[in-house]
Structures are given as C-alpha cells and as structure tokens.
Amino acid sequence: MSSKKLLVKGNEAVAIGAIDGGVECYFAYPITPQSDIPEYLSRELVKLGGTFLQAESEIASINMVLGAAAAGKRAMTSSSGPGISLKQEGISYIAGSELPAVIVNMMRGGPGLGGIQPSQGDYFQATRGGGHGDYRTMVLAPSTCQECYDLTIEAFDLAFKYRNPVMILGDAILGQMKEPIVRWKERSIDPNEAIKWCLTGKKGRKQRIIKSLRLEEGSMEALNEKLMKKYKDMEQDIKWEEFMVEDAEVVAVAFGSIGRIVKSTARKLRSKGYKVGVFRPITLFPFPYKQLREVAKKGKRFITIENNTGQMVEDVRLALCGICETEFFANMPGKVSTPEDFIEPIENMFK
Amino acid sequence: MYQDVIIAGFGGQGVMFIGNLLAYAAMEQGFNVTYMPVYGVEMRGGTANCTVVISDEEVGSPIIFYPKTLIVMNQPSLDKFQPRLVPEGILVVNSSIVDESKVEKEKFNAILIPANHIADNLGESRMANMVALGAWLAAIDEVKLETVEEVVRNQFKSKGEEIVNKNISALRRGYEFAMEKAS
Questions:
Q1: In principle, which of A305, B28, B94, B135 could form an S-S bond with B178, CB 3.0–4.6 Å?
Q2: According to CATH, what is the number of the domain B2-182?
Q3: Is the ipTM here above 0.90?
C-alpha cells in the first residue's frame, strides 16, 4: 500500500500545513465548522514543542497572535464568520504593526450568528481589510484539501516576506470534506527569520518599538505609503487557475469550493457540446485583475458564480471594465451547491 | 473512469464509516477521491449521509445531486434519494427495514439485501453497513473487494483479529449475496 497519501479533512489539511509550515504558536477558540483545526493542533503541535493555547475568547486569541508575532514567532489562529469578526480589531493592529500572522476563516452562513452551512459571504470582509483603517490582508482561497495544505505553508512564508497578516479563506464544504493529500515539506524553524526586527530584549542593540499607535507628525502618512507599496509588491505572488479556458466560449469565474464544483458543471456542459471553462482566482487579494483581463481580451463571455449574494463579482467587473460584462449567478449562503445548480445559468448564455 | 455513490441511513448505522472505508480503498488503488459527510441534527437516530466520488481525473464537485449509485440503509433515505438516482443506476437497499414495494425495480439496477438479518446471523447486527458495502462492491468494477478488506485490516488492527475477521466476513457475505442474485 502507498504510505505517501493521507486521507484528511480540509481542516486537518490546514492544521498539517501549519505544522509543516513551521507554526510555533497557535491560539485557539472553537467554532463550527473549523474546530478540527484546534483539535488536531492541540494533539500534534504540543508533541513538537510548539505552543497550543485555547484562549478565553476570539479577541484574546488574536491579540496573543500579535504578541507572539512581535517576538518573531510563526503564529496562527483560526475561526469562522462571527469569530473572525471579533478578531478584526487585532488583525488591524497586526497590519498596523507590520507583523506576520496567519489567520484561517472557514466561512459559514451569515449574517449574524448565522448557521453552520456553507457560505462565501466573508469575501468582502477578507479582501477589504476587514477591520478599521486602511489596510489589506493577503487572502488565499484553497479549493482542494491539497491546496489547504500547500497554501497554509505558503501563507507563513508570505506573511514573513511582507510582514503582513495572511488569511486562508475556506468554507464549511472544504473544511469537512476529505481528500488525499501528500505532505511534501518537512517542518523546519529558522530561529533567525525575524532577527532583524523582532523583540528580543534590547540588551546590546538599539531599542526597537513595535506598535500601531502613530502620533508623531508624518509617521502615519509614512506607514500608509509603505503599506500601499507593500500591497503593490504582493501582486508578484498572485495565483489563479485556468481550467479548460483556452477554447472556451463562456468562462465561469468562481473561487474556493464553488470553483471546484463549477469544474464538474463545465465537464457536464462540454459533454453536451457547450465550450465552458473556469477561471479560479486563488489569491483573492491581490485579485488577478490583469490575468482575468487577458482572458477577456480573447473575446470570451463571463459568468461569475458565488455562494453569496454578489461580492467577488465586483472585482470581476473591475477586471473586465471596458472590455465586456459578466453575468452573475448566486447560490444563497446556507444552500449546499451541486454541479446541477449551475447548468441552467451557464447554458442560458449560449442561447 | 468516474464513479460516485451516496450512502444514507440513520445516524449510528455506520454510513459515514463505510464511506470512509471506500474512500481509503479508492485512494489505495491510486484514484482521486473525495468524501463529503452530511450530518443530521443529532448523530444517533438522525439521518446521515455521505457522498464518495472516485475518478482517474481531478475530482470537481465532492457534492452530487444525481448520484450514479446509492446505498440506502433506511426508509427515509430511500424516499429522499431514490428520486435522484440516475436511470439504471445501482441501488443497494437494506431490505431488512426498508419497504421493498417502494423500490422502483424496473427503473434501477436494484439489489435488495437483508443487511440487518445477514449481520444478525453473523452475530453482530452493527455490521449491516459492511454487508451493504460488500453488495455494492459486487455491483461496481472500480474498487476491489480485496482492497477494502486490506483497509479493514489496517483500520481495525488495534481492535484485534476477531473484529477484523467478523467485519471481513460481513463484507464477503454481502458481496456473495449480490453475486448470487446477479447470476
């Protein structure tokens, strides 16, 4: 039997990715549908000498992430919808302090306390910063369990590369489904990764201050200018996938779990003679505007499909601006999407 | 190659368990596979179902509305999923507790198997799920009985040889029952 593949839930794949990605401190607070992540790390991270701590609240856990990050540690927290809202102040502080951190949001249906059914309703919150002030988090949206693993590893590297929070944006479908993954990275921790900026105690070196309060004249202006440049630089790490786009007449734009479900729809429609492809943004911030625009220039027609009432479609419109329009199809948050849901809306585009 | 199945029953009947076994076996045979659980409000006594998709291509959707095959362990599951099964699809029904007259035998490739009774006769009524999975394996080509047996051996290793052998004999009994019916 092959021993290389593991059959795991998306949530577990994130947790395994965190371990192999070198997470040193994980601060938990339980909420469905992501609780497999703290469950796994409470068992496995401790064995490796890492810190697992279940805090008294979401707010406490994100501020512990801030503290650990200031000490130069690879730190992470995870939650879902309502819990992520509670963490927003801390995420804004982390961004304002220019600290690396990984935050996982396995989205559930909302608004409010909502329910535990699937939803992509937190797209705006994730891609527009989410908290107060002018900041962005980098957002990675996996669609398979393997990507849950791969992108969590990458999230840590990107967080340190840019000294900025990185969000993994999954959902209830991805968190609960199982799929084989291959672990390809061995856990290793570079103790000097943050040596140039982290807080270690100032003995023998110049004082360092990590804070997000900026009262000195010009300092907030300077920070925002630096952040703006940082967000521009992140464009070099844009990721996306094109699935049967080359000869497609109609391209469906979808992300995350919906991005993979639409692939099945595309296959079904192709078997009926309709040339359908799928464009799947993997980084939601920065959004692959240019890449989608290039596809549009080839004369395709577009339909954006989301498990919300219309959020990413605004980014798609920005990408296509001046070239063409996009249709939009919504599966309401709380509805479990199947490939059949998208057949009619895509088929209609051929009429 | 593409195959999918919805496995449905009461919570406690082990439908999630056999879904997992099947997914493991498919993975061991080198296929791409997804397993998607759907729970009812409560675990025991509530309805539960899972979907397993097996393919040699990348699996798109892990959620299927019109399944190609179905394993139905109780009456509510037949009522819910039979109308969605594709024409001539494989329908494994636990006839011990499902009303046979409600099974559309002309429309589907139906295998009526008294899974509870067979499991009882083997001395462990909780193994009805394994009996049903065995019957399903007899009806499809992609996943081999032997691979599932191998996975059972690994999964139950810690529980001792007796449990392993009991479960394997339940699988085989289901498999043989379906083979006899087919011939």
A1: B135
A2: 3.40.920.10
A3: yes
Residue A281, both tokens: 């943004």
CA of A182: which chain B residue's CA is closest?
Answer: B27
Chain A nearest CA to B36, separation (Å): 5
A338 part of contact set with chain B, CB < 8 Å: yes
Interchain proximity B20–A178, CB inside 8 Å: yes
Is the CB of A7 inside 8 Å of chain B's CB atoms?
yes
- pLDDT tens per residue across all 351 residues of chain A: 345 899 999 999 999 999 999 999 999 999 999 999 999 999 999 999 999 999 999 999 999 999 999 999 999 999 999 999 999 999 999 999 999 999 999 999 999 999 888 999 999 999 999 999 999 999 999 999 999 999 999 999 999 999 999 999 999 999 999 999 999 999 999 999 999 999 999 999 999 999 999 999 999 999 999 999 999 999 999 999 999 999 999 999 999 999 999 999 999 999 999 999 999 999 999 999 999 999 999 999 999 999 999 999 999 999 999 999 999 999 999 889 999 999 999 999 999
For residue B39, CA distances in Å to A87, A171, B43, B44 come to: 29, 16, 7, 10
Where in chain B are the domains?
2-182
Minimal Cα–Cα distance from B163 to chain A, Å? 21
Q: Cβ contact (<8 Å) for A177 and B23?
A: no
Domains of chain A: 5-186+212-236 (3.40.50.970), 239-350 (3.40.50.920)
Q: Which amino acid is at A47?
A: K
Closest Cα of chain A to B126: distance in Å?
24
Distance CA(A126)–CA(A283), nearest Å, equals 11
